[in-house]
Amino acid sequence: MAKAISRPYWTIAPVITAPQLCGVGAKGYGLPNSNQPQEGGISYHQPDRDAHRSRSGVDRRSIPAFAQEDWWTATDGHQIRRIDFAAPTAASRNAAPPRGSLLFLPGRGDHYEKYLESFAEWHDAGWRVTSIDWRGQAGSGRLGADKVTGHVRDFAQWIDDLAGFWETWRSVGPGPYVLIGHSMGGHLALRALAERRVDPDAAVLSAPMLGFSAPNLPLPLAHLAARVMAALGPATRPAWKWSEKPGEMPADRANLLTHDAARYEDELWWRQVRPGLVMGPGSWGWVERAYASMRALEQPGVLEQVTTPVLLFGTSADRLVNWAAIQRAARRLPNGELVAFGPEARHEILREIDPVRDRAMGAIAGFLDRVAPAQG
Fold this sequence. Notes:
- There is one protein chain.
- The protein has helices spanning 116-124, 155-170, 184-194, 219-231, 254-257, 261-273, 284-298, 323-332, 354-371; strands spanning 67-73, 79-85, 100-105, 127-132, 177-182, 202-206, 310-315, 336-341.
- By secondary structure, it is an alpha/beta fold.
- Helix 2 (155-170) packs across helix 3 and helix 4 runs antiparallel to helix 7.
């Protein structure tokens, strides 16, 4: 079997403090329902906060006191890690009139800590904000043969989790209800819409994984190649070396994700102080199932029957997901809108330099004001 990790892909200072359990909302973190041992606990040690504040005053390396980290238990007993920013009140940091409820879905190998800045800003705008870690990654356990390779039996398992969580989450918060997904999270959000498993008033897809940027092969042929590779050995074995790009190991991972060095370092910091979040490559089983799911969305009539207003944004410079597939999806969706970026943006647009990120956040706010206005 190929080694899952050849070497770490970042250099960072030694651990600042031993992992510990403390702080608001801590529930005793580990890797629930995991077939791998726990590497370490959850640390709330947050030094030098002012060095990592955004212009809006958000500390990207701190869980806000008003946010709650907890678990949601799926029907089969698997625990899914979640974070909730309750609907703002008069005592909130920047109180705003109630706006509705927003559920954010991260990408492959992601953890919700990467998006705390966006969550806090949406919360300041009046939204109740929730995010989850997908089953089998970050704080929601592992499904593969080792503790870093991302594996799933089928993407349908994630759709089932999303549908179950959505039903519970929607029943306890104010509308309108918005679903936002990044990369793989955007793919799964769109598939759940197409399968009528969720019913948001609006959806936003950030660089959705509707195709890979490489290899440059027709989708059926790329899927066939992945099926062959998955069948040549255990489907749980890693499909590429320690990186974020199937088929190629980049010299510098940051160059795939963002131009913003400080925001990129935030992710590495969280992985340092919360070791259980660390993820590496996807498995060959994941790659094969990803192609199968992409092909399902490409079938005629699938996206054409989605009536939910959907905002998509992405960049022609993306080296992870296929920009042409995003453009194609925007054309096929009856109420789809597209915001296009160029070489100024990389894959993680919500973690880009301020001018790029501001444009994306502004587009989201304007879109939601139009298609999902405040109720009452």
